[in-house]
Amino acid sequence: MSKRPASPERGPRPPKVTIVDHDFVVNVEDGETIYQHCVLLAGQCKDLGSGEEDFVSVNTTDTFGRHSSQSWPTVAGKWKALAMLSPGPNTVQLKLHHQGAVSPVYEFKLVYQPLLQLPPLHLAIMVAKDSPLLIDCPPAKFGGISSAHSTLESAIAKFRMAAYMWQAQTAEDFRLKGLGRRAFRLDEEWGIDTTSRAGYQSDPSGRQVTSAIPKVHIIRSEHTVEELRDAQVAQQNPHGRRRDDLHSFFKAALRSHGSPFSSAERPVVAGLILDSHYSIEQNLILAHAALGAHDPNGVSLGVFGSHLTYSWPRFLEEIPACLLDRTPTGDTVGNDNGECGTMREACWVGQGAFLHEVGHAFSADHTTGIMARGYSRHWGRNFLASEETGNEAVWDLQDALKFRDFDHFLLPGDDALTHEECSASAEITCEMSAEDDEPVLQIRCKAGIAQIDFNGKVVYQAELFANTALAANKTELENVSYTGGHTFSIKFSDLEKQFDRAKDLSISLLGLNGKKRVVDQTWKMLAELPFVRVPGTMIVLRKTSVKADDNDDGEFWRWAMLLQRKGADGKLVRCSAIDLRVGAIMDGAVVHYADGSHVNCGPVSLHGRPHTFGGHASEKRDIPADARIAKVEINASGWGTLGGIRMTLDDGSSWGELNGHATETLAPQDDERIVGLYGRSQLGSGFAIEFGIITAKKDVGELPEVVYDMPELQNTEGGVNADASMNDGSDNGSDKEEEEEE
């Protein structure tokens, strides 16, 4: 980082300006352009301990000579600090104070360029129509004696400071992820600069310290304090009947307020409920809800109560003290989620949980980090150096990628994703290779692949993460094909060489648009494919089925079995009879084996009990040892299920009940024979909604023994709800309010 000499001043000779060592300031460059008002600085000072008297002072001066100065503690040779920038060039000077001595001045330039053409995050405080305009404040903060931390004015100042801290944390987190130093901007107005001690405590009758500050909208609710504090709408009340109402009340108040909160403007809003209050009698925090929801066509709102706001800093100079204060909060304020026993904890949870709800407003799900309550343990580590390693108070990569495509987070020079790329799904499928008729695992996303994990280990990552901490612990797979950063391909035969078929294989795909796809049981995914490849061989079994009309939604029991199976002694036993279970519709079927065992063509168990089929028109037929199934006729026109079934052997004999006529016929090709059956059944009723045949080439002869151990060709308890093992994270629940887990 290049150095600039300090400007000469009258009086004592100024300290010598030293070239900034990159070991001292590690996260900014001299002359760098910054796009947010509040920036987080970080660095380290070699051979420096953790003396209580050691600190780093940060001085910023803009082009008009306006000056600010703050002090930040050092810990184990490391330091962090927040600096407020003014539009245009800013001179930042750092001084290290160690054992009473002052180091030379470290100086660099930062250029703040506000992106006023982008939409902001709006800040709003909802107050009851008869609100006393006070927030909870414990005796340790002189509550009841002083109004320094309990008035509406102090709540506004604390809200502004929290929003700047959110902004700085987000920008630094994105930078560390390789996504550029980006964050939402805040809607600012000209006013008294409450973000500095000098401005907050300036004499109202004298000259005021003014600046551009975040605008906090005061939104009047049509509800009274009593209505807002009704225990039935308190979100943390397990017996509350209307625990989502406070979010609705806030949205209604925003609509009544008008611009900039009309649906047409599609605002994203952080909403603070001023009249939150801890009831000692009920041991309940009233008028509080931690709720957030994203609405792409209207108002996206994250709300939080003011019951912890007393612990937040009012201005920049108070941040270190608030983040470190271990004073007990006392009995007069709520101990939210049992995590707010000290002032420090109340600050961490209050600011972090509120940001969690803002995350929902920006479309984030309950993923990891901030969206999984990581703030309650590590929020302070974002702003103060720590001897501890690790930080869970950060954004999940999936959420960060989602945010990056919002206008609020754009940076100059961004290559915006097209509409098609933004909406592109993340896909994990298996397809037959056109070259050698072998199944291939295909992992793709048209927006580009950000990351692929196999069993929790990264096997592929986009180049933009190459020089970040995200690139650590990468595992290389063999015989993988990549196509333009959009498609990852590997043959199943190569996959089987690198992963044990007897153990579950989980695959996670994250697209550059934030869409996610997870398959927890990859081997069972084979059950959905129109073929089954026998491991260690070139044998491929083909699958053909009939599905019920208009029934492809819901949760299903997927089943499959072979007409030969291993008996208790490990020897193969043949199918000796098939019972087709039909009543008014098709219930299912049961395959009986020569050793007396049987397997359901449907659920093994339902509702915790072994499942047995009904069916007044059921018919069972013995299968001679030398007979084969020639065809299966299905009536697919049931009431959302299959209507009936009839089977025919190669000797011409047939049995079963169609309940009408056959709409589909399943039969092997001339060079094939039927070796198994498969299908799906409704998870609630057990009724059949899909029935199919598994065929093998006649020239294969006896199937290899390994085929009888393949999980996807057996009907066991493990077959329950195979659909649930495939989690598509592309749906962000944008139309549904998401409740904070309390």
TrEMBL record:
Q: Where is this region: Disordered?
A: 712-742
Entry-linked PANTHER family = MIP04191P, ZINC METALLOPROTEINASE-RELATED
User: What is this protein's record name?
Assistant: Zinc metalloproteinase
* Species of provenance: Mycena chlorophos (Agaric fungus)
Mind giving the lineage of the organism this protein is from?
Answer: Eukaryota, Fungi, Dikarya, Basidiomycota, Agaricomycotina
